[in-house]
Amino acid sequence: MTAGGLLEARDEAARAALIESGRLLFARPCRFFHAAQRLDQLPAPEGVEVAFCGRSNVGKSSLLNALAGQKGLARVSSTPGRTQQLNFFDLDGALTLVDMPGYGYARAAKSVKEDWQGLMFDYLRGRPNLRRVMLLMDSRVETKPADLAALDLLGRAAVATQIVLTKADSVKPSALAARFAGVRALVTARAALHPLVLVTSAETGQGIPELRAELAALAG
Ligand SMILES: Nc1nc2c(ncn2[C@@H]2O[C@H](COP(=O)(O)OP(=O)(O)O)[C@@H](O)[C@H]2O)c(=O)[nH]1
Ligand SMILES: [Mg+2]
């Protein structure tokens, strides 16, 4: 197995091998196993953990369902901003996926502080097995102050962060290209961000094999 992610794949064969290991990993059963509303409720920090975050309604639950190939795994809701808990999913003992509460719903940047100040920041800063946070951004929506505030907070927590664009199917190719360029500029400006920006759609499956491959590289 390739040690690094897709960016480190030396050639087409290495890339194909990584994509295949991602496919195999996510062919294994995935199940919800824990919810935490307080720090003392976190499960034991065992195995590799990757957390997913983003603004409410960004498509986080849909993306988790698409990754696992299970429609009802994470709840998909059109009424955002409800749960303030961390939901833990076990991918057959190989990887733990964490669904974080959405931030920034109808309340500008300071809501990141309010929503995330306690449990979220403590979790991000103190979780020894948290290997990466995938920060999701909507292809249809420009980068919001809440996203920048979340990136600041992730930086302060010193968590490796990678940006994933969602709902790529919902914009024209020209708009998608512009959004991608904007996010790339953001990544270039923030050295701590992973250089590879993934473009995904839970509707069409675009980018899902690549995201699985990135996660497979982390799971090792
Ligand atoms: N067109 C399109 N809509 C999506 C996609 N992913 C999610 N959505 C829609 O966006 C809304 C919010 O999705 P959800 O997964 O609940 O977002 P969450 O709040 O971040 O968990 C729902 O109405 C979804 O159907 C996608 O890839 N393409
Ligand atoms: Mg959700």
Describe the protein in words:
The protein is an alpha/beta fold and 220 residues long. It has a single domain (6-219), classed as 3-Layer(aba) Sandwich (Rossmann fold). It is built from 7 helices and 7 strands. It has a 7-stranded mixed sheet with strand order 1-3-4-2-5-6-7, sandwiched between helices. Guanosine-5'-diphosphate (GDP) binds at residues 54, 56-62, 76-78, 80, 102, 166-167, 169-170, 201-203.
Helix content: 25-40%
Continuous helix count: 7
CATH top level assignment: Alpha Beta
Strand order of the largest sheet: 1-3-4-2-5-6-7
Number of strands: 7
> What is the radius of gyration?
16 Å
CATH topology: Rossmann fold
Structural class of the secondary elements? Answer: alpha/beta
Total tally of structural domains: 1
SSE sequence, one letter per element? HEEHEEHHEHEHEH
Shape: globular
Distance between the termini: 7 Å
| Mean pLDDT reading | 90
Q: Ranges with pLDDT <50 over ≥5 residues?
A: none
Largest sheet: 7 strands, mixed
Cofactors, ions, other ligands? guanosine-5'-diphosphate, magnesium ion
* CATH superfamily caption: P-loop containing nucleotide triphosphate hydrolases
Percent of residues in beta strands: 15-25%
CATH architecture: 3-Layer(aba) Sandwich
